[in-house]
Every structure is written in C-alpha cells, then in structure tokens.
C-alpha cells in the first residue's frame, strides 16, 4: 500500500503565509491574525498538511461559524489539498452524522454541530476559523469547554479588545 501524503496542490504560498504557518507549527496552541483576503485558509491548509504528513496528529477538526463557511472551506480543502475531508452540519440527521464523524482525516463543521455530537469527536487537533468567537456564550466556547485538543490553531482577522 502506498504511503498517503498530505500536501497542497495548485497553490504557491506567499512568504508571509509560510512564515505564519511555520510560526503556528512551532507551538501547540497558536492564533494567526491576518487581514481579510490575505489567505488565512491557505495558512490553515499548510498547518494541517504538515501536522498530518509528519504524523503529529491523526485527525483534525475544522470549525467554521456558519454552514456557508463549512461548504466553502470543505471545497477549498478538496480543491487545494490531498487530504480526505468530510463536511458536516445540522442539516444532516444526528443518526446519519454519527458515522460521518469517522470519515476523512479532516472534518469541517460548525461549532454547534460539534457541541451536539461531542460523543463522536475523536480529534487530536482543531483549526478554529473566526477564533475571536471563542469567548462568552458562543458555541465555540462551549465546545472548547467540553473537549480537549492537543493542538489548537486559531485564524482571525479580528482580535477583540481584552
């Protein structure tokens, strides 16, 4: 059986994107703050490819704040990486989702769907898009209170005031 490699395809990262991904890979928990439209999703892809390729983690959960962004991110990973990726959201019945949580090396979902299905979560790492939502009563916060991830990688264009 051929070794599975997880890599980017069709994309050539810019120097600052490589620097951001490398900085994040040097830490167990990191937040990357880049302006809108500068390729945070690509930085997340680079981080995920490296973590999976180097066998640092087996599976990664990607949290997106909306179903629209779940679709968009899933499509991005399908087009620009070789990582088997699954998407899940609340439109799929919970009984059907139970098996889908085990599909793919990456699962892209909303935090509310993940909170609803915590019994099925078995991920070593999490990428949190729009991580500035991880405060207060948001589902992002609920999920992080309920689960443990060895590696956390946050992406945001906004860092809220303390």
Q: Helix and strand layout, with pairings?
A:
Layout: H1 15-25, E1 29-33, H2 40-53, E2 60-63, H3 67-80, E3 85-87, H4 94-100, E4 106-109, H5 111-116, E5 125-129, H6 139-146, E6 151-156
Helix pairs in contact: 1-2
Task: Give an overview in words.
This protein has 162 residues and is α/β, with parallel strands linked by helices. The chain has helices spanning 15-25, 40-53, 67-80, 94-100, 111-116, 139-146; strands at 29-33, 60-63, 85-87, 106-109, 125-129, 151-156. The protein has a six-stranded parallel beta sheet. α1 (15-25) packs across α2. It is globular. The model has no long low-confidence stretch (mean pLDDT 90).
Salient structural properties:
162 residues, alpha/beta, 6-stranded parallel beta sheet
């Amino acid at each position: 059986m051929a070794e599975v490699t997880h890599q980017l395809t069709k994309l050539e990262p810019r120097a600052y994107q490589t620097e951001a991904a490398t900085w994040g890979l040097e830490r167990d928990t990191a937040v990357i703050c880049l302006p809108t439209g500068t390729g945070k999703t690509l930085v997340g892809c680079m981080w995920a490819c490296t973590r999976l390729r180097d066998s640092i983690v087996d599976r990664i959960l990607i949290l997106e704040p909306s179903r629209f962004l779940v679709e968009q991110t899933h499509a991005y990973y399908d087009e620009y990486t070789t990582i088997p990726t699954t998407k899940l959201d609340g439109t799929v019945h919970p009984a059907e989702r139970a098996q889908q949580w085990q599909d793919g090396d990456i699962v892209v979902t909303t935090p509310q769907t993940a909170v609803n299905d915590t019994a099925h979560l078995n991920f070593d790492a999490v990428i949190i898009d729009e991580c500035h939502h991880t405060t207060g009563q948001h589902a992002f916060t609920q999920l992080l209170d309920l689960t443990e991830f060895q590696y956390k990688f946050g992406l945001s264009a906004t860092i809220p005031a303390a």
